[in-house]
Amino acid sequence: MRFSISCGFHVRLITVGDKDGSGEISKVGSQLGRKKKIEKEIDECKSRKQIAELIFDAIDDDSSGEISFKEFKSQMGKGTLTDKYWKQLFDAYDSDGSGEISKEEFIKINLETAKHVSDKQYKDSALKLLVQARKVDAENKSKQ
Q1: The whole model's pTM is what?
Q2: What angle do CA 120, 49, 16 make, to 5 degrees?
Q3: Where are the beta strands (DSSP E) in 4-83?
Q4: Average pLDDT value over all residues in the chain
Q5: Euclidean distance between CA atoms 83 and 58, whole angstroms
Q6: Coil, strand or helix: which one is 67?
Q7: Which of 28, 35, 37, 57 would suit a FRET pair with 51, their CA atoms being 20 to 30 Å apart?
């Protein structure tokens, strides 16, 4: 598990997710709770580098410290883009050509490509990426 969850978090999640007062969390409520938690994690970061580290850790499914092409495409590859496009994007991140993206490579490219956007835009993009990555993680865990 990449992050710890406190008992208080569970209580807040149930409160936020229980839209009808039934004591059960709906799928929408669960997603809302996940998004609020991620927003808080992003807000607690003191720099863009820390946010980039959060994103890296979410994409690195096996916690190996490197992102494989399979992890990269699984976490970021939702949509209509071709495998060729995803491979080109992966190769741009994999600056040493090792076939894996290190945390340092990921952070460097992430920060370079985002230097012209506002902090709000950066945080909004990070939120979307993290929500997607953690949704994929949850789906993969439920299939196991």
Answers
A1: 0.73
A2: 55
A3: 66-67
A4: 79
A5: 21
A6: strand
A7: 28
The two structure tokens encoding residue 48: 């863009």
∠ CA 36-30-54, rounded to 5°: 45
Q: Are 33 and 16 in contact (CB under 8 A)?
A: yes
Q: Which tokens go with 54?
A: 């959060």
Two tokens at 140? Answer: 């993969």
> How does DSSP assign 85-132, residue by residue?
HHHHHHHHH-TT-SSSEEHHHHHHHHHHHTTTS-HHHHHHHHHHHHHH
- Residue-wise pLDDT tens digits, 8-46: 333 333 344 444 555 444 444 556 678 899 999 999 999
Cα–Cα distances (Å) from 40 to 70, 74, 109, 130, in that order, read 28, 25, 24, 12
